[in-house]
Every structure is written in C-alpha cells, then in structure tokens.
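Page 47, continued from p. 46.
Same chain as before, 300 aa.
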Amino acid sequence: MLSLASISQEAFDEIAWPFKPKLSTENVWDVFVLLALLQDYDERTVCLTVPHQGMQKDQFKAAMEERNERIVRIGQPEINHICDGCMRVYEVKHSDREISHEKCQPIVSDGITLGHACCGVFRCTQPLQNNRDCFCAEHRGLHNTCTITGCNHPIRCGDAKTCDNRDHQQMEQLHYAKATSAFALSERPLRYRVAYPDDALGTEAPDVTTADLPDVSVSLGPAVEENIEWYTVNDGQVSYQFKKNPGSVGVLEEGDEALASSEPCDAKSDAGNRKFRAQFGRWRTHNEQTAVRTCGVIVG
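Result:
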C-alpha cells in the first residue's frame, strides 16, 4: 500500500495536477462545514447558495454566519428536548385534597470567562475581518489613532500605537516591557491566584518606570488584554500599574480576600497624579457559555 501511495504521488507530481492525494486539515474543515450547512438547509427545505468567486476559505462564511445568528435568536432544535434523564414529573397534593402534576427540568450552564475577540469600540457587534485586528471594518481607521483613551491624534509611524506625545510613548514602552523580569515576577502571584502578605503582593508594579527599562521600539502585536492596567504621570514621570481582572465571576474565591483588599484603587490619588488608560490589545466578549441538560444533550 505504501508503494502504491508513493507511485500515485509521483504520478500527480509529473502531470502538475493542482490537486494532491494527501488529506489536509483544510480538506477536512471544508467537508465538515459543507456537510453541516447541507444538513441545516435540507432540514429547512431551503437551497444553499454560495458565491463562486473569492477564496475557498470564504465561500461558506456568509452561510455560516447566517446559521449562527439564527441559532443565537431561536436556539438549537434540541432546545425542546425532553426525556426521563433530564425531566421529572411529580405529584403535588394541595390543601383542598386536589392533586396536580408539576415538572422539573434542570439545566447546567458552564463555560469560560473569556469570550472571543471583538471590536474595540464599546457595544460594536460587527465581526473582525482578522483575529489580529483590534477593530472591525467599520472602525478600521482607529488602528491609525493613538491608543491612549481620550487621545484622537494619529500614530507617529506604522508599527507604533501612540502619537508624538512623549508621555504616551512612555506608556507604550511600559506596556510592551511587561515581558521583562520586573513585570513577570510582579504578575505571577495574580496568575496563580496566590495570596501573600500585604507588603509582598504582586497586584501593582511599584516604582517601575521607563527609566528602568530598555528601549522597546517594535510592537509585539495585538495581544489580549488580561489585566486592568492604567498609567500615572507625576512630574513628567510615567508609571505603570495594574490589577487583576475579575472576569465574569462577581464573587471572591478562597484566598482572594487579602488580594482584593490590597489592590490599588485606580481613582485619582491625593497627590493629584493624572491617570490614563489605553487599549494596546484586543478586546474580548465577556464570556462564552454552554447550556447542557442533565442527560447530556447540549441545548445552547
């Protein structure tokens, strides 16, 4: 079999045939998408129509988006599922000796606290053209605007994220210097959710300024914003601070009480330091959830 496969591959190479006998990841994905769409349209007795132009990866994009939006609005067909494994019917005896029947059908919702990448404009629902973009096609022009919140000046060059303002440039330098040891060691307790004494908490990057860091002139790309960070400017000196993003869970877990009580407040300080926020990375939706019946059927 191996020799026949080798001969077949050589035959394809000799005639310069554009198709290869090897099954690629792209082939499997195309077949999966096409089969799912054909089944969906066949169940609704609708004809599937796709464009005959453009790249192969974009042929079924519009049909997939239409199906996903429909599922979001009305749910999957399994939303009306009922079986003995997920529903119980029981009797209720009333004071007037009448008996009624009630039902109980629990559902379990679980997911991740970080959703998919989305446009950086608040409440914009337009999709990103590329997962590396920070803004959708409608707001694409904001890629060339200073990323500091409240500043509408254009960026100084193609790779930069800030304008000609010196303070804004220092904020960008501090942001991309987070990978250095000074920032990595301070963020590590947050990442592993470890509570230390108040004088050893890693909730803030104290006394870390651009004077302590090497020159960072090249952007590392639109990473995802994990922590809530801000910058303070005091007498021309820019400092970087951050606190843990609580995510979609609004309660403190074990060990977080001491951590939360020692986190710095991002309100204006008594000394009058001015605080700035920025959006160097991509925004994500709040969370992604899956709803499952107790019998294992996924309904949404």
